[in-house]
Amino acid sequence: MKILVLNGPNINMLGIREKDIYGSETFDTLIQMCLECGKKSGVEVECYQSNHEGDLVDKIQEAYGKIDGIVINPGAYTHTSIALLDALKAVSIPAVEVHISKVEEREDFRQISYVRQACFKTISGEGIQGYVNAIHSLKDKLVNNKGD
Question: Which of 83, 100, 105, 130 is exposed most, by the fewest CB atoms within 10 A?
Fold first, then answer.
């Protein structure tokens, strides 16, 4: 079983940007946590981050036939990118949307999530621990849906 953890713009700046919102844990800590969760869960985890929308679309398309599940934090593209939604819908890979902060309690423009339409679950406001919970949710869904 293989899960892609996909991060959008500015997620690589964790530990530097707006610590009051995103915490002080670094991007490297996030990646290490995801990889360790995968090892402990018997899941191969691949992590990817880009500040460029097209790169994220390309990575989703490349996942087709190779990846079993996607954890996606599209960053600001959450609220603007129909292209990411269309890519997720095109590949039909089970996906979980993750946000480090509680986007539902932030600015009005952050209330819109295009990618949510292609995800079976959204995890918001759990810090980087939300990624671990997303990996577990994906694994559970993939194991329970095998043979369906």
Answer: 105
The residue type found at 97 is E
**Catalytic residue (choose from 22, 77, 114, 131):** 22
pTM of the model: 0.92
Q: Among the options 48, 77, 79, 99, which is catalytic?
A: 99
Instruction: Round to whole Å and give the CA distance between 129 and 145.
Output: 24
Please say whether the beta carbons of 104 and 39 come within 8 A. Answer: no
| pLDDT at 146 (0 to 100) | 61
How many separate helices (H) and strands (E) can be counted in the chain?
5, 5
27-30: Cβ within 8 A, 24+ apart: 29/128, 30/128, 30/131
Catalytic residue check, 22: yes
In angstroms, the CA 118 to CA 97 distance is 9
- Structural domains of the chain, with CATH: 2-142 (3.40.50.9100)
